[in-house]
Amino acid sequence: MLTTADELYRSLPRVSNSDLTRLKEEQLGYGDANTTGRATTERAKVFGRAFHQHLLEPESIGMVMHQLLPDLTSTSLEPTQASELAMLMATIRKDPFCRRYLRQSERERVVLFTDPATGVPCKTRLDMVHTSPKRRNALIIDVKMTSACTPAQFLESCYTYDYDRQAAFYLDSLRFSDSGEWTDTKQFNVVFIGMMKQQPHRLFAIDTTSIPGFIDYGRKKYRFWLRKWREEQEGHRLVPTPAWQLSA
Fold first, then answer.
1. What is the per-residue pLDDT across 183-204, written as a single tens digit (0 to 9) for each?
2. Assuming Cys at both sites, which of 164, 190, 200, 203 could form a disulfide with 218, CB separation 3.0 to 4.6 Å?
3. Residue ranges of the Putative exodeoxyribonuclease 8 PDDEXK-like domain (predicted)?
């Protein structure tokens, strides 16, 4: 059973980045993976949700333990899931950068916007967003569990898992926010924090807006899939998927 916040967010009649991921998987046939692969992926997603809930909404931790962790009982994680999550939380909270922005940022902030290129109403729910009206900048931070062991591997995974698309989608959610809250903001940054799933649980930080072409390429991707989404909703024939997306 989902939390009330999850239910409210999912019920909003707008397109999220996760919706675009599902659309891509459907169009490219990713949903035909074997049962074992799907089960492994689902367990990883459940653990990821529990991790984010522990990190961003610790006040509802009892509910998470009750709702999510039972789904992980078939995994081989050692020590127990609760102990593993506690270790991850202790590691990330020791990091000065993470500790600072966990304290100063808005967590799980929902932002509604309309993409000006496609006219599609969209939504985001940001792990952390810190806005400085005085400096006229905004910082979005998103935490990822990763199998990467080096910063280079984590950066490579950002392309593999469409994090460039996510970064552009998140950044533009502030730029084009329906509320106009960030109209006077001049600088937007999106930072991904990768946390190693395995010991020693190292952290990798990537400022995606400092990587040439990262955001622009991600924007090209999300707008392609928004057009696909709009055409599907309108009942139009879907255009062929370009070669650059097949490998994205």
1. 999 999 999 999 888 888 889 9
2. 164
3. 35-221
